[in-house]
ETFB lysine methyltransferase (Xanthoceras sorbifolium), 365 residues
Amino acid sequence: MYSLSNFFKHLPYRFSRCFTHPAPYTLLSNVNFTHPKPRYHSTPTSLLSPSIHSSNSPYLSVRILCQRHALDMFSEALLCFGAYSASVDEEDGCEGSYEIYIDSIFPEHEDVNACISQAADSIGLKEIPTYEVKMGEHCDWIKETQESFHSVEVTEGLWIVPEWQTPPDVKATNIILNPGLAFGTGEHPTTKLCLMLLQDLIKGGELFLDYGTGSGILAIAAIKFGAALSVGIDIDPQAIISARHNAVLNSIGQEVLKLHLFTEQTCLSSIKEREDGVVEDQSSHEINKYDVVIANILLNPLLDLADHIVSYAKPGATVGVSGILSEQIPYIIDRYSQFLEDISVLEMDDWACVRGSKKINLIDS
Ligand SMILES: C[S@@+](CC[C@H](N)C(=O)[O-])C[C@H]1O[C@@H](n2cnc3c(N)ncnc32)[C@H](O)[C@@H]1O
């Protein structure tokens, strides 16, 4: 039986993606951030801290030279240790180089040196990255950061459109998103792969579980494709808030798109609505219920939570797991082949999504 203590031990895995250790079942990173609570899973192009309250305050603009292999983890660590945002300009003169620039925004009063040192230390960098600091002018830099997101056509006729843009094709299936607050902008290959899988699977009337919903992009897409019910779960309250906002942007009601926060309290208390509007509830994501289950998280939680993730699917239902690099496919197949049959793999830009059908006679643990 899956236990809560097991579940919570996976939280640090959210920081593991930039390490591609070959051995399965290994804790790839022992990073344990204590303050403030980490919010983001990865940084495809840009991250914004949810602690932003005012977009018009003075700020420090910090350009940091980072080792390319540490990019994802270091960006996330910066947010954890005080940065408002961390973004990468892939076209900024470092192509092919061992190092890459991260442009980060800090509050005016922040001790940037301490933040960068702590961030580097927390992910085990031996040297503190070099950086330069400029005082930012009063300007709406959140808006500037958001403007780096553009409408994306994921597959023919399926567009992800930022909230502030007009859909390029009004006849297409348009998912309207505010991508600034949680992972799932539609730009990341794993999100694209999951969307393609969903488009293939949802024919009408299905029950869909989005395990690690982030911005809610997959849960929303499933409804747009014709699912009868989407349930999105996440361990990050900001993701739930963001997904709810995005559901409203797409005129999708709570009767068909249910969002649930996984917390320790969730399992100890009954359903309750908190002051921030997040509903905590475990009752509606029942095992053996869903026609399609997709988990776009990371290698290690996918390995450790495999039986838990699969248990939500009906016998014979499709389970898709993503958030993994192509080189990690064998570990996923090795682990999931005890639960799934007819396993196949979709790949895009070195990222992968593994799908399979839940074995009919599987006894859920
Ligand atoms: C890569 S994002 C995926 C977002 C979206 N589903 C997509 O496909 O773009 C992963 C999300 O999973 C959440 N997450 C990470 N570990 C989790 C876990 N063990 N259980 C539930 N959610 C988790 C993160 O908070 C994050 O919002």
